[in-house]
Design brief:
The complex is a heterotrimer of chains A (227), B (256) and C (291). Chain B contains 10 helices and 10 strands. Chain B is an alpha/beta fold. The longest helix of chain B has 18 residues. By secondary structure, chain C is an alpha/beta fold. Chain C is built from 7 helices and 12 strands. The chains are: A alpha/beta (227), B alpha/beta (256), C alpha/beta (291).
Amino acid sequence: MIEIKNVSKTFTLHNQSATSINVMRDANLVVKPGECVALTGNSGSGKSTLMRMIYGNYLTQEGEILINGVDVVQAEPRDIIELRKTTLGYVSQFLRVVPRVSTLNVVAEPLLKIGVDVKIAEERAKELLSRLRIPQNLWQLSPLTFSGGEQQRVNIARGFAHEYPAMLLDEPTASLDAKNRETVLTLIEDAKARGAAIIGIFHDEAARDRVCDQQIDVSIFTPKAAA
Amino acid sequence: MTPLLQVKNIEKNYGARLGCKDVSFDLYPGEVMGIVGESGSGKSTLLNCLAGHLEPDQGEVLFNTRIEGLRDTLQMSEPERRMLARTDWAFVHQNARDGLRMGISAGGNMGERLMAVGDRHYGQIRTQATEWLEKVEISEERIDDRPSQFSGGMQQRLQIARNLITGPRLVFMDEPTGGLDVSVQARLLDLIRSLVRELGLSAIIVTHDLAVVRLLADRLMVMKSGHVVESGLTDQVLDDPQDAYTQLLVSSVLQV
Amino acid sequence: MSEYNFAYLDEQTKRMIRRAILKGLAIPGYQVPFASREMPMPYGWGTGGVQVSAACLMPEDVLKVIDQGADDTTNAVSIRKFFEKTAEVETTAATSEATLIQTRHRIPEEDLSEDQILVYQVPIPEPLRFLEPRETETRKMHALEEYGLMYVKLYEDISQHGQIATSYSYPIKVEGRYVMDPSPIPKFDNPKMEMSAIQLFGAGREQRIYAIPPYTNVVSLDFEDYPFEAMKADGCCALCGADHTYLDEVIIDDDGGRMFVCSDTDYCESRRAAGHIGAQGTPQNQEVSAS
């Protein structure tokens, strides 16, 4: 489902005397449907960078990143947009939404984008918000006014609204209480059960051990000379 | 899939001064493309060339017409181009005064586009205008008021309603949120975004506000001194800019 | 003998105007620019109509001039005298006897015939002018038949007054092509514009001539659910009793007393001569025979 072959990444900082930083070299990784792979490594080892490269958020200089057969490295913007709509979900650590949009709409939006009926989409959104214990009286408010933990849960609800065949999870259990952590882990297990291929970053070792089938230390991809 | 708009090698000069040069891109149905750059970068020149307001010195602007498929709008006769401008195309000006008739009621402003394409039933025109007022969140009681009695944000929303009432497929927007209060901007952004999704519109939005493109545009084109220096997925260009100028642009902005 | 060239204008000018008239007739409703001359009367007093009349007049013509339907108001009298002096043509008040009728703001009640010409005085020839101030743009709109804006005016009427309140200068579409201002005639007269006579329109200050050939299709613009209606004051002429003519309201005292009379004075008089008497009218037969 997700296949990463010989991927390299370099940042060039033109405004700082064109400094070139090679942050990743020859990364390889395969995730099959129903499998969850954890990216591990110290802070700054490139876990988030790799995840962003897979999502197309960072440009990849070399190699192939195949998601369901589509090479993110070579794909046109519109192909990546399509991929993100239908196939590849991403739960980032930060919620980024248009101001003033209600929480319910924020969560339902991924479904509306692929043409799901408004009623069905909202039902699904309500279900997820309930499961993640967002009080019902907040649903019509913009999540931008919420606390960090609430925003994180809204973000997760949004990420799980559509059943993506491939998912990227960046610290999904961070800053959650025990009950919500449990809910999120269940959501991940459910996703695996329906055949989703998942790549995650978990600092929470217990969570990692519970849901992940494989762990990859990304520091092995870090070019030693560049550090 | 056929692109809705195919732009090839557009070049426009103002005498010896370069407006824009070597601009090419394809825009597909449902896509929103942002064009950013500082004042004088040629982004407005480009938009006006695409929308038929300016005649480029070189290049092609192919539009996928409903009947005849891809056609170069620059080679079209003026009546054809004007017809396109009031049916399949829409243009939202930065200043609502440029896109509205200030001496005519809100309803008349919206109705004009309908009447221009042959609607001759007052009741139906009125009903559609009322529906659109609701869509752009203006109280229907204001339908007979003139835009001059509206606030800046309302004028801009009315301009959008006037443009979209005939169901265009491609919308050009020139700094649609420019000159508005931040809170009003947010409301307008939300409105544009949901209309784009509901109606499956394609749009080209020129702005210097990176936050606006981050929220509205799927794709981004960065212009400097008349040239496109970088283009790609909006979040990719903003989060991992490759070109020196884009890096400078992104880093100069307070958190986007 | 008059010291003026026949009908005041020199022959070259008349030829220039005739060319404009012919072009106007060839393209019904299209505004033909022409080099309007200074006339010995102020703009707004019919300089356009006078130039068109001068270009059309022949020595054998019989001229009638009306202003708001009346033959005896200042504007009508002065123009009639102008041509009596400069062209020495016969003049008349009787619609049926005239071969050329110059009019301001009315069409005579009596049907016109093929051997007559009706010349309108036009203040502002461009029907789109108050909606679109740019001449370049209005010309383009005519050229491309973009008439949505004209309907905006009617839309605004209905939204403000509950009906199309435009009661004069009511826009028409000529022969399915050009939208035209019929000059400030009441909309009551609009249906009469499909007539047997030639209709010519002259705007002196705006330097435009346009025309409607005989038997041309003329449609007053309207909405499907607000159809055009030719309206007139509700009542009948106090002098001749007619209830099918366009009426003027005349205030007759300081106590709010008023009466309606035919705006077409010649038509009213001929009705009274034929024995029709309104509520405040007196029999005319004796007077006519006495004079």
